[in-house]
């Protein structure tokens, strides 16, 4: 019985990889684009651009602080100028 | 002659090709090195560069290169008799497609997994990238035109296929949701999805769908209505995230392809149907194109197809775990596609019954072109019937397979064309075009609709055969570009480049010759296709000039390198 379970697991792993591997980079690209749009919406105020939604999204800042660093680097800003927030 | 004998002979030839010719390519031409660190290992990032199990990678490569095209081309080309088509498929697969697909993976892997566009720029010269972009633009537009007609024709001939083909969309969407949202393993959902899909076939048979009332109300051909509906769907589908529809549908299609190939060849083996069509047709109707050179552009996919180089260099090379896997993935992928073309030849020559039926179906080239896919469906339903499955169900089953394949090709093609149009926008400095994805997608769809509906005046009749031949020429030119890159790369390394050069010279000669003959044909009654043919003809000449110039440059470089060595 254990052998069958093991075999089934291998089949499932093979199948999952078959489903994902061809599309992995395309999916990642789409996910990154969506993430960038979300980050822009959340952090425009921090970059000095007035954003009417920032008051409502303020409590999400801690959740995205780690991603923020990766995002501003991705957008071409190697160091974030505001001290105490990032970098 | 019994179809099974022909099938076995071709499979033996494929086996020998893999055993000996691909070994020669691997050792003497591409000089594979098992210790070479592939880009997948060197730049492994878990996203673009991922060393992948060679069987999984083969599955992806094969299902990406095989589609509706290796079915349609041979189904038309048996017009000249089954032997020329069979020989071109067998020899083309072994000596041209094998070297081309295998070589594209190797050259790309040796250049940090760059795609074919970048490779043409770095190996031939920067100007060639523009040539590549223009050829790809025409290739994609023609793919959209011919596949939309193929789908529309199948919907009209088999109205029972409409419901199961449409059902693939919600089934694929649910499968994607189950996989990504519920994070479930996908074996059980896949099984349920396939069972559901096949359960929809009798439902489709019971409730056939036609657009005749709409067409009558608009005073147009039902095919025009289907083409417009298909492009409307494609415009929306191309805007959906990949994981929602395209990925799960492509995944289901992979299984459909393996099931279809298994069922067809099992039916051929069990039924012992004999080939009723003539080996070489001697009574060609007056005004028909002659098989030499038109056979070689009518069958592109299935013998050699430039589209494969885009898959090999864009995706496959980035996931190649070991360089030696390229032989199995690239060469075997070509053999898989050749098998699909073989299935098409057998279905259209042994599956249609008596010789008189074949004569009627292939009465002239226009009839053969318009009806080719339908004859394949009819032939396969005969093979499926050998397994005890009713012919009506078999016809819908294989129609659904072709429709879903052509649908995925269309979706991918329109997505790709958006990027090509944006890149052209960058070159000609039209910022709106370069930046606006919606505008690029709309343009891609509108240009394709125009090319589908305007030539010839009558959609799906004579225009389809002409569009198909033009599609074949752009496909072969893309292959020519890839073979030039491969041959130059081999030549630069001081190895014998004849393996890629022979198919390159053959393809460019046949394609240019066919384009030249078509200029005269199209000038008489189809000015739009004349203009397109003339542009592609110029592209072919441009490619020949670039290829000769690049070879001369490399030869001079090699002489320059040899001279000081001899002096020493």
From TrEMBL, chain A:
Pfam families: DUF7990
Protein name listed in UniProt: DNA helicase
UniProtKB/TrEMBL annotation, chain B:
UniProt KW keywords: Cell membrane, Membrane, Transmembrane, Transmembrane helix
Assigned protein family: Belongs to the peptide transporter carbon starvation (CstA) (TC 2.A.114) family.
CstA N-terminal domain mapped to chain residues: 3-349, 366-514
Chief location: membrane
A Gene Ontology biological process term: cellular response to starvation
Subcellular location: Cell membrane
Name of the molecule in the record: Carbon starvation protein A
GO cellular component: plasma membrane
Classification via Pfam families: CstA
Organism encoding this protein: Rubrobacter taiwanensis
Membrane topology: Multi-pass membrane protein
Transmembrane parts of this sequence: 85-109, 130-156, 162-180, 192-211, 223-245, 257-275, 290-311, 340-358, 387-411, 432-454, 474-491, 498-516, 528-551
């Amino acid at each position: 019985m254990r052998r069958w379970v093991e075999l089934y697991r291998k089949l499932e792993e093979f199948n999952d990889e078959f489903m994902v591997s061809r599309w992995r980079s395309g999916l990642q690209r789409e996910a990154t684009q969506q993430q960038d749009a979300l980050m822009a919406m959340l952090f425009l105020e921090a970059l000095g651009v007035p954003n009417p939604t920032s008051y409502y999204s303020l409590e999400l800042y801690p959740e995205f602080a780690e991603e923020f660093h990766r995002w501003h680097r991705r957008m071409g800003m190697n160091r974030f100028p505001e001290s105490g927030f990032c970098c | 002659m019994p179809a099974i004998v022909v099938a076995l002979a071709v499979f033996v030839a494929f086996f020998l090709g893999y055993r000996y010719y691909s070994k020669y390519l691997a050792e003497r031409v591409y000089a594979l090195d098992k210790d070479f660190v592939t880009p997948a290992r060197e730049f492994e990032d878990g996203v673009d560069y991922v060393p992948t199990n060679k069987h999984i990678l083969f599955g992806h490569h094969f299902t990406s290169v095989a589609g509706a095209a290796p079915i349609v081309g041979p189904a038309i080309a048996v017009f000249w008799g089954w032997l020329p088509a069979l020989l071109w498929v067998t020899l083309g697969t072994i000596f041209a497609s094998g070297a081309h697909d295998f070589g594209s993976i190797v050259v790309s892997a040796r250049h940090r997994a760059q795609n074919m566009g970048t490779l043409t720029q770095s190996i031939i010269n920067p100007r060639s990238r523009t040539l590549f972009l223009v050829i790809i633009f025409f290739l994609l537009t023609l793919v959209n035109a011919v596949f939309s007609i193929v789908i529309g024709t199948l919907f009209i001939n088999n109205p029972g296929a409409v419901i199961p083909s449409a059902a693939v969309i919600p089934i694929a969407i649910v499968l994607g949701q189950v996989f990504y949202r519920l994070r479930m393993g996908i074996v059980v959902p896949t099984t349920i999805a396939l069972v559901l899909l096949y359960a929809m076939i009798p439902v489709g048979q019971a409730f056939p769908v036609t657009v005749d009332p709409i067409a009558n109300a608009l005073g147009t051909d039902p095919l025009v209505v289907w083409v417009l509906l298909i492009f409307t769907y494609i415009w929306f589908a191309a805007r959906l995230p990949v994981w929602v529809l395209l990925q799960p549908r492509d995944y289901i299609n992979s299984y459909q392809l393996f099931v279809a190939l298994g069922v067809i060849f099992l039916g051929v083996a069990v039924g012992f149907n004999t080939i009723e069509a003539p080996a070489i047709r001697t009574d060609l109707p007056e005004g028909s194109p002659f098989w030499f050179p038109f056979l070689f552009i009518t069958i592109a996919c299935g013998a050699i197809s430039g589209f494969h180089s885009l898959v090999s260099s864009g995706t496959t090379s980035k996931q190649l775990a070991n360089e030696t896997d390229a032989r199995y993935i690239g060469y075997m992928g070509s053999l898989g596609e050749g098998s699909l073309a073989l299935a098409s030849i057998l279905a259209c020559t042994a599956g249609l019954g008596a010789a008189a039926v074949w004569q009627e179906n292939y009465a002239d080239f226009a009839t053969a072109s318009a009806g080719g896919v339908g004859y394949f469906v009819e032939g396969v339903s005969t093979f499926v019937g050998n397994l005890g499955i009713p012919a009506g169900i078999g016809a819908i089953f294989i129609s659904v397979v072709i429709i879903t394949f052509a649908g995925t090709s269309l979706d991918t093609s329109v997505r790709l064309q958006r990027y090509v149009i944006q890149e052209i926008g960058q070159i000609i400095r039209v910022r709106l075009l370069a930046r606006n994805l919606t505008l690029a997608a709309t343009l891609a769809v509108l240009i394709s609709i125009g090319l589908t509906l305007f030539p010839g005046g009558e959609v799906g009749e004579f225009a389809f055969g002409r569009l198909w031949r033009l599609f074949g020429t752009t496909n072969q030119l893309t292959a020519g570009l890839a073979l030039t890159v491969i041959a130059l790369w081999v030549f630069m390394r001081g190895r014998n480049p004849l393996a890629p050069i022979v198919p390159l010279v053959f393809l460019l000669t046949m394609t240019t010759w066919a384009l030249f003959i078509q200029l005269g044909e199209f000038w008489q009654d189809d000015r739009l296709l004349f203009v397109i043919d003339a542009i592609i003809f110029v592209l072919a000449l441009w490619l020949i000039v670039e290829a000769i110039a690049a070879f001369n440059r490399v030869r001079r470089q090699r002489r320059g390198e040899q001279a000081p060595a001899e002096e020493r």
